[in-house]
Amino acid sequence: MTVLEKFKPIFYPKSVMVVGASKDPNKMGYYCVKSLKDAKFKGKIYPINPHAQKILGFKVYPSIKDLPENVDLAVIVIPAKAVPSTLEECAQKQVKGAVIISGGFKEIGREEGLKLQEETVNIANKYGIKIIGPNTFGVVNLHANLNASFTPIFSKLKKGNVALISQSGGMCHIISYHGMEEGIGFSKIVGVGNRCNVEFADLIEYFGEDPETKVIAMYIEGVDDARRMVETAKKVVRKKPIVAYKVGREGSGKAVYSHTGSLAGKHEIYKAAFKQAGIIMVDSCIELLDTVKALALQEPPNNGRFAVVSKEAGPAITMIDVCTDGGLTLAKFTDETNEKLKKLLPPFTIRTNPVDVAFASLNIEAYKEAVRLVLADENVDTLLFFCLYHPGIKLPVEDFAKAKNKFKKCMVSCVVAPKNMWIQVKRKMEQMGIPVFPSPERAAKTLVNLTFYGKIRKMVS
Amino acid sequence: MTVLEKFKPIFYPKSVMVVGASKDPNKMGYYCVKSLKDAKFKGKIYPINPHAQKILGFKVYPSIKDLPENVDLAVIVIPAKAVPSTLEECAQKQVKGAVIISGGFKEIGREEGLKLQEETVNIANKYGIKIIGPNTFGVVNLHANLNASFTPIFSKLKKGNVALISQSGGMCHIISYHGMEEGIGFSKIVGVGNRCNVEFADLIEYFGEDPETKVIAMYIEGVDDARRMVETAKKVVRKKPIVAYKVGREGSGKAVYSHTGSLAGKHEIYKAAFKQAGIIMVDSCIELLDTVKALALQEPPNNGRFAVVSKEAGPAITMIDVCTDGGLTLAKFTDETNEKLKKLLPPFTIRTNPVDVAFASLNIEAYKEAVRLVLADENVDTLLFFCLYHPGIKLPVEDFAKAKNKFKKCMVSCVVAPKNMWIQVKRKMEQMGIPVFPSPERAAKTLVNLTFYGKIRKMVS
To answer: DSSP letters of B193-262?
Structure first.
């Protein structure tokens, strides 16, 4: 069985049951049914509850046994101690995937929870059931209208090509909500929770093959088998970028994992190993989003020689600082480019790299040509573009995009305007494959991350 | 003359002339008149232009000589070579402040520009004229309805207590536009440009005394007399926080200042000296804004022992990581607090520090009490608060603020909701003095900066 087939019951179920479905809007069992409904899931939805007839318009079944047919996926929101027996009943209905939202397993750090988790794993493995969780918010597949989570709002996420694997429900919600704001399109979102029999490595392998995924994003606190994860990632990064945000340093490790201590002190080693595997490491959830946005829009540069075209010197300096800190090199233009820029732009402008288009930005033809010349230069791998709102400027976005595509260059931009202004311009840039960020530092740091991945891919190809 | 009096003609002029005023919306001379008009400046506005009668409804004077009375402030937007003689004419009208927007001085790095700047300084000093610029976008004083800049939109900024000194027009616009979005209130904004006879040190001294300024923010590329700046800052930080974003590392120094090389390699030394002077150093324009926002809302903590109250574990871990990296210490609650939290919150919750209020956040009384207990703890200096949107939660903001004020604690929060949701809740929190940030890392880094300043102030008091 291929990895795509193995995960089919989780991501593309024909039917879903919700064990612990509820009519009470104060219970998670209510939101799980609502999520499936709001996402307009096309398959059958079977709420299970002995005390209800209808939930959100769906016929309710008193028990799993009473279901009229076999079911692919079970969403389980019942007390932990009832989970193993429920899983046995699920198996009788040929369930092959389970999203166990319930908490009270390994994470409580007591004999009782550990035992329950072990039991659950054993039953799942016996019947070949893939489990997401326990202790998770769920799973979302925007390409299948599947929202098997307790968060109905996830149904409103944009469909796209970024897969997100998160070890924390909270962080996953933060990332998704900000992603919504940034217009980032997701393929699938998985909250791995306690990782019963589906580890980061399994999902990396899956998303490596998933045709709907172009970029893999991860939020990680700890990995049980780091070696396996690293080995799997090493293979996948040849085809698709993996961006990871790893937390859990000594301070938080002590606080949160004081019962196991397994992470304490290992953080930097993890980070180094991940990076060596070719995983792009980021330092915040916002940087994670910025990086996946840029990677979803374009191919990374093959090398680190960057140029800056800016309407103002300050932001250019700021961007150069961040890029050179990140190991990139300010490109040295060819004599030809230098000559042409000198003719094109007025004196008193910085016409080398960075190129200060201040006086020329109101002259649309000069503006287009300056960007074209820089992109055409053989010594330039990427263009960092900065523009500040001015009522007189009509940004020639199509021409920029045309030049970028013609010369097969990477382009990352920062476009800043007063509140509620130039929103259409920014949207158009992203539609044409040029990511836009709200600050020069965020644009530049994203370019550093893209370049890291570009070098990895060059190395392995 | 006190420093407040010295700068009065710049920040509180009774009348302003615009030398180089224009009717043409493609010229900066047009926008300078528009800025003054849009800000509803209460004093007289005198556009000077030999070829126009009216500009934006104002009577135009053909030359400075023709003005009917003396004028306090001159905004100058004419070619550089005409500036010295214009300044002589200004002096005849008792002008005591000038905002020289024109470029073409020292920054062009040629004999010609250097000479012009020297000449300008000599004339200004001879007549006791304070100059902002040259090569600046201008000056804004929101408390005097004065927008002496080429950016009319600055008139829409919120009036408040943050003073901004910027060496780059571009960065100043980025900071101001984002500040607009964050609802940050500014007292005065100054683009120092080439710094003829008004240096960072002078403005720090001024804002140190300015009753309308509580926090001083700076964007710096290079300082001519760093020692003087540091000495001045050292005194001012006893009363008011100074937050600085210093750029210009070796890479950008080479590129942008290749004609002088004066900054190359000194960046880290500058940063260290500034920090030692008690200046809060930040790494991005967004961090600059975050930090000034928090400082404008509340007093900094006296010490670095922080507590975390969160509805989710992931964001709490993330915040602890950032804080411990920044040298802060996760507070150890007293036995009393531990006992009470244990009774208050259900088992399987983390009830030490961080406090995971997951299951209790829907119980408003327990939520209030958990926050109150943590704020009351004598081992806690600050509270980092995280809350993720949930349809069932009504955040008891007033009660949080009451407890914060009662126990005189600092509180920094991250509240995350899907697009366009909980905007009122976030606004209310800030109205009650609790800054809200969109990511756990930004909230935590702000707390690190606040704590740095709290320690500085404790040391000097």
So the answer is: TT-SS--HHHHHHHHHH-TT-SEEEEEES--S-HHHHHHHHHHHTTTS-EEEEE---HHHHHHHSTTT--
CB-based contact A405:A374 (threshold 8 Å): no
Question: How crowded is residue B269: how many other Cβ atoms within 10 Å of its Cβ?
Answer: 10
pLDDT tens string B200-224: 999 999 999 999 999 999 999 888 8
Q: Is B312 in Cβ contact with A171 (below 8 Å)? A: yes
pLDDT number for residue A326:
96
| Cβ-defined contact of B418 to A177 (cutoff 8 Å) | yes
CATH class for the domain made up of A1-136: alpha beta
Of the residues B22, B186, B323, B416, the best mutation for testing chain A's interface (the one with the most A CB atoms within 10 Å of its CB) is: B416
**Topology of the domain covering B1-135:** Rossmann fold (3.40.50)
pLDDT tens figures, B26-83: 899 999 999 999 999 999 999 999 999 999 999 999 999 999 999 999 999 999 999 9
Instruction: Name the CATH architecture for the domain at B299-460.
Output: 3-Layer(aba) Sandwich (3.40)
What are the DSSP E strand ranges found in A254-409? 280-282, 305-310, 329-330, 355-356, 382-388
CATH topology of domain B157-297: Rossmann fold (3.40.50)
Homologous superfamily of the A300-460 domain (CATH): Succinyl-CoA synthetase domains (3.40.50.261)
| Choice between A404 and A104, residue whose per-residue pLDDT is larger | A404
Chain B residues in contact with A219 by the CB 8 A cut-off are 314
ipTM above 0.90, yes or no: yes
Residue with tokens 């080439």: B194
> Any alpha helices (H) in B394-439, and if so which ranges?
397-406, 423-431
> CA nearest A267 in B: which residue?
B321
- Residue of chain A minimizing CA distance to B24: A392
